[in-house]
Write a structure and sequence with these properties.
This protein is α/β, with parallel strands linked by helices. The chain has helices at 8-20, 23-37, 74-78, 84-93, 113-122, 136-145, 160-167, 173-195, and strands at 50-55, 99-104, 126-131, 150-153. The radius of gyration is 19 Å and the shape is globular.
Length: 199
């Protein structure tokens, strides 16, 4: 039996795209889709997602990271945190962008990271937030209350000893992070059920 290339899930995604994005963002998304069908032949991606360094601060000292490693050049560590005003100006420069990443070192250390997420969401952009997860417990309620679309939690090492060696963090941190990720997932599922939304 042959399957139709258009199914109900694809139609739902198109409906969300049309409902939640401006015409330039929709054009940008279609450009991305065409580019993907061709196998991403160009190094310079035309749809311009915006990935930002909002803070150079981190609570870990990972050897592989340009912000945490003791071998990092000082200029990587001495740059100022991005202000909310500068963040808004960057979003103004990229009106067609459909996604914004609030990254660099540890975004949860930025005092206005969730204000940035809300501002990007109001501009109809998907919000990506990468984190080492060690501060997730302290900011769990804020994460649940914010319009973060993608939360990427890095887990370093296969056990506490490996984590401490790789990051300079406490050996018990991965256990706490895993528990907080579990709490977040359970709370998000409960919120989705209350809203009648399948995330």
């Amino acid at each position: 039996m042959r399957h139709s290339p258009i199914n109900s899930e694809a139609l739902k995604k198109v409906a969300v795209l049309l409902r939640d994005h401006s015409l330039p963002q929709i054009a940008n998304t279609l450009h991305y889709a065409c580019h993907a069908v061709c196998g991403f032949p160009l190094a310079n991606l035309p749809y311009r997602p915006v990935w930002l360094v909002i803070t150079p601060r981190c609570n870990l000292r990972c050897g592989h990271c340009s912000y945490g490693s003791p071998d990092s050049p000082r200029e990587a560590l001495d740059c100022p945190e991005m202000s909310l005003r500068t963040f808004a100006r960057v979003l103004d420069r990229f009106p067609r962008a459909i996604a914004v990443g609030l990254g660099a070192a540890e975004p949860f250390l930025h005092p206005r990271v969730f204000d940035m997420a809300r501002l990007a969401h109001r501009r109809r952009k998907k919000v990506h937030l990468p984190t080492n997860g060690t501060l997730l417990g302290e900011r769990l309620d804020e994460v649940l209350d914010s319009p973060v679309d993608f939360l990427n939690v890095s887990l370093y090492g296969t056990d506490g000893e490996g984590f401490a060696e790789l990051t300079g963090g406490r050996p018990d941190a991965p256990t706490g992070t895993a528990a907080h990720v579990g709490s977040l997932a359970a709370a998000a599922a409960a919120l989705s059920a209350l809203r009648g939304v399948d995330d």
